[in-house]
Amino acid sequence: MTMNCGDIAKKPPITITPDKTVEEAAVLMADNHVGLLVIVDRNNPKKPIGVISERDIIRTIAGKAPLTVTVDKAGTMHNFIYVYADEPVTAAARKMKQYNVRHIVVLDRNGELHGVISIRDLIGEKQILDILARDWTPTKE
């Protein structure tokens, strides 16, 4: 039984446009109980252009930036980490480990937004843990 990234990213992703503020992002995260928002093109909500995470917001506050700074200044734009919906779940786990992130964006093969996988999604289901344990190949570090 293989599970693809798209199977795990079931819930619709919570999105924000680049002109919104860090404060608005924090409210959206709190209201939706998520740790990552996908920043999308204002004219195309299926086109991801970046991400903003809880860590980004904390870094912004710690750096004394005002909460009115826009998310495109506080988040990661364009070079965000993603997997494709048809890739195996192990691809998401490997990228999370490689880049030390707790969330990963899931795209379809057209580059359109499918969802988000969190580390909680991966550790929340025994079936996924079994797949990760079986398929994991140790890396030389």
Automatic annotation (TrEMBL):
Q: Does the keyword Cell cycle apply?
A: no
Q: Give the keywords, sorted.
A: CBS domain
Presence of the UniProt keyword Transcription in the record:
no
Q: Which InterPro entries match?
A: CBS_dom, CBS_dom_sf, Diverse_CBS-Domain
Q: Which Gene3D superfamilies match?
A: CBS-domain
Please give the SMART domains that the UniProt record associates with this protein: CBS
Domain called CBS: residue spans: 9-67, 76-134
* PROSITE patterns hit by this protein: CBS
| Family matches, as PANTHER family | CBS DOMAIN-CONTAINING PROTEIN, CBS DOMAIN-CONTAINING PROTEIN CBSX3, MITOCHONDRIAL
Protein known as: Putative signal transduction protein with CBS domains
